[in-house]
Amino acid sequence: MIDLQTIGNKIKQTRLMQKKTQQQIADACGISKSMLSKIENGQTAAAVATLSKICKALNIPMSWLLDEEKDQDLILVNKRSRKAKMGDHNIGYYYELLANKPPLSVIEPFIVSIPKELKKDQQTYTHTQDEFVYVLEGAIELYYDGKKYYMEKGDSAYFRGTKPHLYMPVNNQEAKVLTIYIENRFE
């Protein structure tokens, strides 16, 4: 049996993290504010259709909301069990996911490998997350918003992913960069 209190707590915590009011979510779902309050406080069960609307308004998967397992405080990923490198054929990078993030986490950590044979005519790209980078091996040129920055082992940068950017290898040497994508929930 699904625990109404657990579901309600997940909805409430998500809503508060997103700095949304009960009225905003209730309006988006076509329910009353008092009904949402009762759902959040575990005082009433909601129809699946209503839960689906709440999940859509909060941009969370319903499977997570209905999952009875508690969120993990620790996600430990052994090097041998980490997902293999995933390639981005459009850009030429290889990504290695360092941790499977919980649904409400605002960060995604990767190691990005920049091959030495990366084509020099790559186009910059954008995405919605902020980005933190730390050069682990080698050196890169970070192209950001029309300017070029040299970065070597130990250097770091934090920037908005909404601005055009790109990493390029230096001196035909492969580079590895710890990259953390950070969901910016305040824009």
From TrEMBL:
GO terms for molecular function: DNA binding; DNA-binding transcription factor activity. The keyword Lipid biosynthesis does not apply. InterPro entries: Cro/C1-type_HTH, Cupin_2, Lambda_DNA-bd_dom_sf, RmlC-like_jellyroll, RmlC_Cupin_sf, TransReg_Diox_bact_type. GO terms for cellular component: cytosol. Signal peptide: none annotated. Keywords: DNA-binding. Residues 11-65 form the HTH cro/C1-type domain. It holds the Pfam family Cupin_2. The keyword Transmembrane does not apply. This is XRE family transcriptional regulator.
